[in-house]
Write a structure and sequence with these properties.
Blueprint (H helix, E strand, L loop, with lengths): L5 E7 L6 H9 L4 E8 L6 H7 L3 E4 L5 H10 L6 E4 L11 H9 L5 E5 L11 H14 L11 E4 H6 L10 H11 L4 E5 L11 H22 L1
Parallel strand pairs: 1-2, 1-4, 2-3, 5-7
Antiparallel strand pairs: 4-6, 5-6
């Protein structure tokens, strides 16, 4: 593998409105050799717009969820650094450079994006609180952004994951625990990223509820 070359994985579901901007921006990040978009069963033109923007596109036959989509894209990795980005970052995807730089400078094995403080709360904070407490319990780490999906990993961190990501909405917590338990270094990196937040509505509360129970599932599996 090429030294310090980066593959970007972007799972996307019905993001035709912003995916092209995110892809084009990600391609401008230094050291990025390819951007892979995993179209997770979209019903719109996400795949077409991502491909036209310069991404390598993998289309899932059905919706696999974030972990499943990332595992589908992982086989396309080249280089020795992996950058995970959400599809709705738009131009702020450029902040992924800060995560990559942290890995390349060997300051961490996994770098986690720490977003600016929210102006208002989008939920009750139960999933976030569970994630913070669980990671502290299992690893001793005190993280403020344990649910952030914007991450850069080196090959040691990927090996700690067993070569694949956990399924469901507990993926970030599982990733953090598994990497930390191997004695690898995890660092949160302040970024100026922006993306769509889950609202205080029925859909938002359903999403956060699924996230909470998926995190519980991750913790039960690792306890056993």
């Amino acid at each position: 593998m090429e030294k310090n070359m980066v593959t970007v994985l972007i799972p996307a579901y019905n993001e035709e409105g912003i995916i092209a901007e995110t892809v084009k921006t990600a391609l401008t990040i230094p050291r990025v050799s390819q951007v892979v978009v995993i179209d997770d069963g979209s019903t719109d033109k996400t795949a077409q717009k991502a491909e036209n923007a310069g991404a390598m596109v993998i289309e899932a036959v059905e919706n696999l969820g974030k972990g499943g989509a990332l595992n589908l894209g992982l086989s396309m990795m080249v280089g020795d650094v992996l950058l995970l980005l959400d599809a709705d970052l738009g131009q702020t995807a450029s902040e992924g450079k800060k995560l990559i730089d942290t890995i390349v400078r060997e300051e961490a094995d996994m770098a986690i994006a720490k977003f600016p403080e929210k102006k208002s709360k989008s939920g009750l904070g139960l999933a976030l609180g569970l994630a913070i407490s669980a990671i502290r319990h299992y690893t001793g780490l005190n993280l403020s952004s344990p649910l952030s999906g914007q991450r850069a990993l080196n090959l040691r961190a990927l090996e700690a994951l067993g070569g694949k990501f956990a399924e469901g909405f507990g993926i970030e917590v599982a990733m953090t625990i598994d990497v930390a338990k191997q004695g690898l270094v995890i660092r949160e990196v302040p970024v100026k990223m922006e993306h769509r937040e889950t609202g205080r509505n029925i859909a938002g509360f359903v999403h956060r509820g699924k996230q909470f129970f998926d995190i519980l599932s991750v913790l039960i599996k690792r306890s056993l």
